[in-house]
Write a structure and sequence with these properties.
Layout (H helix, E strand, L loop, with lengths): L12 H31 L5 H25 L4 H10 L3 H36 L7 H13 L1 H16 L3 H25 L4 H23 L17 H36 L1 H37 L3 H28 L1 H6 L5 H14 L6 H13 L3 H22 L1 H4 L2 H37 L1
Helix pairs in contact: 1-2, 1-7, 1-8, 1-10, 2-4, 2-5, 2-6, 2-9, 2-10, 3-4, 3-6, 3-10, 4-5, 4-6, 4-9, 5-8, 6-7, 6-8, 7-8, 9-10, 9-15, 10-11, 10-13, 10-14, 11-14, 11-17, 13-17, 14-15, 14-17, 15-17
Length: 455
């Protein structure tokens, strides 16, 4: 296979980021299709589609938590460390970081699989399940948990493919699984009549195929850093460094799971199963529109990490600034689309008129000020790319745990069910600005000093 590897030290920074980000955005969208296609098909089942969709939605806080561990070892942890080591030309350390991240992903995947298989009932009821929705949630989650190891390995190792400049291959890794999932879903759900179980089987099989491709590529002659057994022996200091830096991404994923848990519980208390279904749709729409910003951040991250490791302050500053401009422009367009066409967004996932009406009204509240998320993306991603683990973790916690969770619990006492939706836009404004302005204050002086030393 002939592949192209990007050189992060040369060329116009904005062009380089877009070139790297485009396949990553496609990959993010394709990865989103795994669970999104499941929701769309399940929501349109002839019988019990709305209840099945609600049950499926209860699984996604658990799935978000599982995916958070991939960020711990891959995109936010090991991959930036690997890119910085490559920038310093320390290729041995870069290989060891990748090998250790691979082993951590496998060990964590096995542990999480066992936990979910044993404790799925109390977990799902804690996340807002009722006696009506639990059977659907259980059927999906029990099968999905079997694929935990390939899910973690695919998501974490794909970040090392991207960090070496092979963004197109990273896109193909995800594309393989998504195409398989799209093909298998209708066959297993409708033709074979497996329903929710069929959606889970399709997802697990598809993720396993993606995992095989990603690992095979990292073991091939095409890559500068190859995955090898000798690099998988865990080093305590190295693992702690991976986990410390990756904690910001893990915290964001884990707190997303926490927020979904709190939102589901509050939605159930104040609106019943109907509004748990509404939250499933809101989370799905948010994931769709967050995908591009995540791709932009993922494209900028290896560029920033490499140049920061190479002590090139000017290129690092340009990459951070462009991340904000690009994310903000996109987020403004996305916000307008959501506000103008909320019914169309809801109809993607259900035919139930009551849920469509409730979801449309909720979207206008939930997504108000969505464009402020661009500041969170730019600030957070710069902290992560430059290895500023403590700051990255703090602002992850600040937006979700300190702002969203308390407001989600308290605001319904004043505004009823609408209060559950109001916490998100408040956190977008306050958390986004706090993360970005703090990043400018903490990071830019160091980068400007690097720039002066170069001159």
């Amino acid at each position: 296979m002939k592949v192209h590897q990007a050189d992060f030290s040369k060329g116009k920074v904005s062009t380089l980021i877009l070139r790297v980000a485009f396949p990553l955005i496609v990959a993010e969208f394709v990865n989103l299709l795994y669970n999104m296609v499941d929701r769309i098909y399940i929501g349109h089942l002839a019988e019990n589609g709305s209840v099945a969709l609600t049950g499926l939605g209860l699984c996604f806080p658990v799935i978000s938590l599982i995916s958070a561990f991939a960020k711990l070892y891959g995109p936010n942890g090991g991959a930036p460390l690997c890119a910085m080591a490559r920038g310093r030309k320390d290729y041995r350390e870069a290989s060891l970081v990748m090998g250790n991240s691979f082993m951590l992903s496998i060990l964590t995947g096995v542990a999480l699989m066992l936990i979910v298989l044993v404790f799925n009932k109390p977990i799902l009821y804690a996340f807002g399940a009722s006696d009506v929705t639990y059977p659907y949630a259980r059927d999906y989650l029990m099968i999905y948990s079997v694929g935990t190891v390939p899910v973690l390995v695919t998501l974490s190792m794909n970040a090392f493919i991207n960090s070496q400049g092979f963004a197109t291959i990273g896109m193909v890794t995800v594309l393989i699984g998504a195409v398989l999932n799209i093909i298998l879903d209708p066959i297993l759900i409708f033709v074979l009549g497996l329903g929710v179980k069929g959606a889970a089987i399709a997802t697990v099989f598809s993720q396993t195929m993606s995992c095989i491709f990603a690992v095979s590529f990292l073991c091939s002659r095409n890559v500068q850093l190859k995955l090898s057994f000798r690099d998988m022996r865990l080093g305590r200091k190295r693992c702690l460094s991976i986990v410390a830096l990756g904690m910001s991404g893990f915290t964001m994923g884990a707190t997303n799971s926490l927020v979904q848990l709190v939102c589901n519980k509050c939605a159930f208390i104040w609106g019943g199963d109907l509004y748990v279904g509404v939250m499933t749709i809101l989370n799905s729409v948010r994931e769709i529109y967050n995908t591009v910003m995540n791709g932009i951040g993922s494209g900028a991250s290896p560029v920033m990490s490499f140049n920061y490791g190479a002590k090139d302050g000017e290129r690092t500053i340009k990459a951070s600034n462009f991340t904000l401009v690009c994310s903000f422009t996109y987020a403004m367009i996305a916000w307008l689309v959501i506000i103008i066409f909320p019914h169309a967004m809801a109809m993607l996932f259900t035919q139930d008129g009551q849920i469509i009406e409730a979801s449309s009204a909720a979207m206008r509240i939930y997504f108000f000020g969505f464009f402020f998320m661009a500041f969170q993306t730019a600030g957070q991603q710069t902290f992560v790319a430059l290895g500023k683990a403590k700051q990255a973790v703090f602002f992850s916690l600040f937006r979700k745990v300190i702002i969203v969770v308390p407001l989600t619990i308290l605001l319904p006492f004043i505004f009823g069910i609408n209060g559950v939706m109001m916490a998100e836009p408040i956190s977008n404004v306050v958390g986004g600005l706090a993360a970005y302005l703090s990043m400018r204050h903490m990071v830019m002086p160091e980068l400007r000093a690097m720039k002066k030393e170069q001159a």
